[in-house]
Amino acid sequence: MNVPKILVVDDDAESRNLLSEFLAANGYAVEAVGDGAAAREELTRVSGYRVVIADLRMPKESGLELLRYLRHQKSDHAIILMSSFISEAERRQAQELGARALLDKPFRLMDLLHTVEEIAPTKPVAISP
User: Fold this and answer.
1) What does the alpha-carbon distance between residue 46 and residue 32 come to, in Å, rounded to a whole number?
2) Model-level pTM?
3) Where are the strands (E) in 41-77, listed by range?
4) DSSP-assigned beta bridge partners for residue 55
5) Apex 89 CA angle, 105 and 52, nearest 5
6) pLDDT digits (tens, 9 = 90+) for 75-97
7) DSSP string computed for 71-103
8) Could you tell me the residue ranges of all domains in the chain?
9) Nearest-CA neighbor of 90 among 50, 116, 114, 55?
10) Fewer CB in 10 Å around end: N or C, the chain?
11) What is the pLDDT of residues 6-15, one digit of tens each?
């Protein structure tokens, strides 16, 4: 089974590294970039990402702008947005654009892992006869 690929997009290097290391330790192939523009470049250059985890507020391009772009491109990436503050208008826009989850910072890493596992499990699901 292929290891699910995740792209972490966060302008805070410490947060970006923490999330990347945690997800990699839990069986995912993880790359990380510092803003939405860099995420666009990475997603254009490298195929196979199943999940994009993006901070809502970043320089150059926000997570919401990245989500809007990916939907306009008819991308099937599952998007998880995170932020220490998400306005109701942003929450509505994200839901309308199909974000799979909106995580309020600070969040528990296990909550993120459970959300990612629902989208892209690392192990096959057992099916009983």
Assistant:
1) 12
2) 0.91
3) 49-55
4) 82
5) 50
6) 999 999 999 988 999 999 999 99
7) HHTT---EEEEEES---HHHHHHHHHTT-SEEE
8) 5-119
9) 55
10) C
11) 999 999 999 9
